[in-house]
Design brief:
Layout (H helix, E strand, L loop, with lengths): L1 H15 L5 H15 L5 H7 L4 E4 L4 H18 L2 E7 L12 E5 L32 H5 L10 E5 L16 H11 L4 E5 L19 H7 L4 E2 H8 L6 H10 L3 E5 L2 H6 L5 E5 L16 H4 L4 E5 L2 H11 L1
Parallel strand pairs: 1-2, 2-3, 4-5, 4-7, 5-6, 7-8, 8-9
Helix pairs in contact: 1-2
Amino acid sequence: MQQFVLKALYVLVTVKYPRLRPDLRYFIRDNYYSRLNQFQFWAKDYVTKSPYKVVDFHGEFDQELRYVMPFAYWHFLNGTLKKTVSSSNTKPFYFFSENHEEKYNKRVWESGYGYYEVPNMTHSPSFSFSKWKRVPLKAHYKNDVFVYDKPILIIANKYNIEWDKPPINFLDVAALDRIISTYKSRYQIIYNRPLSTQIVVDNSEIMDLNEHEWMRQNHPEVLLMNDLYGVHKDKVSNFNHLQLMVYANCNRFISMHGGTAALASYFEGINIILSHPGGGMEHHFNEYATIFPALSGAKILHAKNRQEVFDYLDTNY
């Protein structure tokens, strides 16, 4: 029955989006199916409304942030959340869940395919917000610890394999030097590129950019998230907890395509996202204008190359 419905939905998508590339239609089809799948829970969600929903996910971090966490939070507000299950060190993200299990020690990106348990499960030109609520990470984690004389500017960089290719979306040392030199007098810059030992990795191998020691020597005014963790690790439960506390006090971000960009989009303010064309599906579906700003109401500025990052900085920061 499932295969029949999926085939019928693909035909529907083909009729509705005749100019769309055939392979992209599968994403929309899967989202349609995931929304139809919710009808079986109508009575539990809107009539009996007792805790029953177990939200269990260990796919890509980006997918969890965009679709799974807001779904779990909706069930929490609805009174129907029973349990959440995710990867190691994710309890801070699910602060609202009274029963959260950190079951998985590795993310498996393939597990996101065929995962029809949430109304939105993959890329799409439109999203359902009927069972999707913003998770108030900023309000929950705002604090008096990470407060400085100048407003915070977070550079959330990454340097890892993308789509089985060498790194594409990242700021190299030259770009970092230009940004830091220009803005360190105006902002307290905090640099964040987590090490593989600090987060749960998936298929994207993290590589070495050799920028941390360079930054300590050439721009000692910049605070490194890795160093902050060393100083404050007795006050936080894990590295993710630290990230949430620091991000909650910030309104200006530079982030990279993927989970890095999704996380920074949770904290209002302005988020410049470096995402080169030719890789992720966000470009095809214009998602930097839809789901990303929906995460917190943040102003999202999509930079398609490093020069556009500099241009957005010049006009907004």
